Amino acid sequence: MRNPTTTTLGYALFATRWLQAPLYFGLVAAQGVYVYKFFKELWTLILMCVSGHASETYVMLAVLKLVDVVMIANLLIMVIVGGYETFVSRIGLQGHRDQPEWLSHVNSNVLKVKLATAIVGISSVHLLQMFVDVHHTSRHALLWGTVIHMAFIVSAAILAYMSGPMAAHGDRGHAERPQAGPGRVTPPPAEQDHGDRRHGKPEQQAPATTPAVPRQPAPDADAEARIRAARFPARKLLEDFDHQHPRGFDRETVDRLGKAEFVAARRNVVLVGPTGTGKTHLAIGLGLRVCQAGHRVLFATAAEWAARLCDARAAGRLDAELAALDEYPLLIVDEVGYTPFDAATAGLFFRLVAHRYERASLIVTSERPLGRWDEVFGGASTAAMVDRLAHHADVVRLDGDSYRTRRATSAWAD
């Protein structure tokens, strides 16, 4: 059980992050100063050009000054937006057409590398100014300007090199932690067929056909580490989903979910449909996109989650287990409905859903609609669990026959 004093102290310390908020508003004021400086320099340049007193060297230096001011203003924007998002509070820009692509997966490593790169760019402009005005710059200033610039380049290169292995090591460490101690379920190897290994009721694994969504760029090393740590049974891409197989399929909703913005918004996804219509394929595909967007994901079947939570309860550490799962912005619960659960296990699922309600996201696949979950969970908490799960959720219904049955029938007919 948690210590109330420790919990209160932790929340109080965490709340002190708001002390940084005025600092970022101060940087906004500094950005206003640079806007004033930019237009002042621009007005001076225009007057000099109109009066005919501007030489080519003067114009070049003046333009470089303007570029320098803009780059510093860009650096301020990066610190204000990225720093506030990372260290103070989330900025609710999900769905905004002008949202920066890096904002959805900004973290301290990303921010440091971007800042180092921006500083190198500013240093380059300063050094170029010195060389353009070389006749009025001492050799001593040129030498030290070059040395300082090279130091910035080396520092940025080292920081960029270290940030990748450090993030990957952190993800591997978090991935190993859930397997230490009782209640940890080790998923089967990815090479096994996802359907054949569970309950005799496999889920949809459709072949590659016409892409349903635009293909995403290859994930970087950090994303690959998150994908390995997620414990997906196989790698199934959204682009490989056979969207022509289900008779009913909300392609627009899946396209939108594929942007992974539902995780930042703490929304859930429920995939409902008969066996073999592609629910697990879509769940894994969305999970891969979330990993590529910079979030950690953990995948397991409903039976595996039940075993994990039951072991944690038996060991007297259910609260600690639920708190540890907070490290994963997205949990995937696959195959709800294939195995009925008793009232005690249903209560554990309620604890999981209630704990993550409006705090983190879930993807759930089930052969039964939410209104029939009382057939699966034999407890009084089922209605409350469904209510919390569906409150902030996108429900995607897939209708049709099993893809594998269709393939088997076709092969027999041939």
Count of runs of 4 or more consecutive helical residues: 14
* Main sheet makeup: 5 strands, parallel
| Proportion of helical residues | 40-55%
Strand adjacency order, main sheet: 2-3-4-1-5
> If you average the pLDDT, what whole number results?
80
Please explain how this structure is put together.
This protein is of the alpha/beta class and 414 residues long. The chain has 14 helices and five strands. A five-stranded parallel beta sheet has the order 2-3-4-1-5. Strand 3, helix 12 and strand 4 form a beta-alpha-beta unit. Helix 3 runs antiparallel to helix 4, helix 5 runs parallel beside helix 6 and helix 6 crosses helix 9. The longest helix has 38 residues. The protein starts with a helix and ends with a helix. The C terminus is likely disordered.
How is the topology of this model organized?
Elements: H1 4-15, H2 21-51, H3 56-87, H4 108-132, H5 139-176, H6 221-229, H7 251-257, H8 261-264, E1 268-272, H9 279-292, E2 297-301, H10 302-314, H11 318-324, E3 330-336, H12 343-356, E4 361-366, H13 382-391, E5 393-397, H14 403-413
Helix pairs in contact: 2-3, 3-4, 4-5, 5-6, 6-9, 10-11, 12-13
